[in-house]
Amino acid sequence: MNKEIIGEVITDKTMLDKIITENISKLEEMLPNMALKLISILVLLLIWPKIIRAILYMIEKTGKIRKYDPLLISFIKSLMKTLLYITLFFLIIGTIGVQATSLVTVLGTAGVAVGLALQGSLTNLAGGVIILFFKNVSKGDFISINSGTIEGTVKNIHILYTTITTPEGLALIVPNSQLANSAILNVSRNPTRRLDLIYSTSYDNSVDKTLKILEQIANEDNRILRDEEHPITISLIKHSASSLDYRFRVWTKKEDYFNTMYDINKKVKELFDTNQIEIPYNKLDIYKRN
Questions:
Q1: Across-strand partners of 235?
Q2: With a threshold of 0.70, does the pTM exceed it?
Q3: Which CATH number does the domain 192-274 belong to among 3.30.70.100, 3.40.640.10, 3.40.50.300, 1.10.3720.10?
Q4: Dihedral of alpha carbons 201, 207, 210, 216, sign
Q5: What is the pLDDT of residues 72-83, one digit of tens each?
Q6: Domain 123-186: which topology?
Q7: Dihedrals φ, ψ of 213, to 5°?
Q8: pLDDT, tens digit, for every residue of 64-116?
Q9: Which one, of 233, 236, 241, 239, lies nearest residue 209 by Cα?
Q10: Residue 213: exposed, middle, or buried by beta-carbon count in 10 A (0-12, 13-18, 19+)?
């Protein structure tokens, strides 16, 4: 009985040694191939980013020479970068040994799930195409959307989002679909802007004197436009409860808009003080009862 058991153990050990030897032989045969694949993948990972940078540089250089829209250049660069990384993915998969057709078949089988997962991204991609096709905005435009909740200067458009720099200098990332489907107030599109200001004086002050001072300010500022398309309107518009309200409406070049507004506000205060024209403000009278 013991001899039979010992014989079986020896036989099992011999078979195990044979299996191990065969696997080691197969591993030795596979190691050079695996090492070659690993080296190939490492080379791809090292070289591919340089290839991408070179292609993107050529796109930007060609776009500037042919004077393409800067937003179109940034969109093409973003799209090309994405496609090149997808290509890298398939190259690595092919190097490992997975057939690209098999991968495509798997993705096709899961097409519904993939489509639902990428629905938002595809919408943003379509939004970017719409923005570029209709040219609603250009690089450097100051825009406002959603009733002023989002505003800033357009910097770049990518395949899924647009980058905007806010007046505070913050980077704002807006999905292309939101930008394409919203009402856009493009402040930079027209070369001129209308400046609408309201000034109030006391009822004790002369209307003619106040109008004369406001007209003087408008006539002395060379940044204010004076032609038929850009009329100057200075008038008394309202009798408020405690003041007379005057409209000061003029036109300036878009680049002069804010500086002109700041300087006019300062000038109005100075001349009102000089000419003893009172600007109404809230007053509180306190009576003491004995």
A1: 247
A2: no
A3: 3.30.70.100
A4: positive
A5: 888 888 888 888
A6: SH3 type barrels. (2.30.30)
A7: -65, -45
A8: 888 888 888 888 888 888 888 888 887 888 777 766 566 566 556 555 555 55
A9: 236
A10: buried
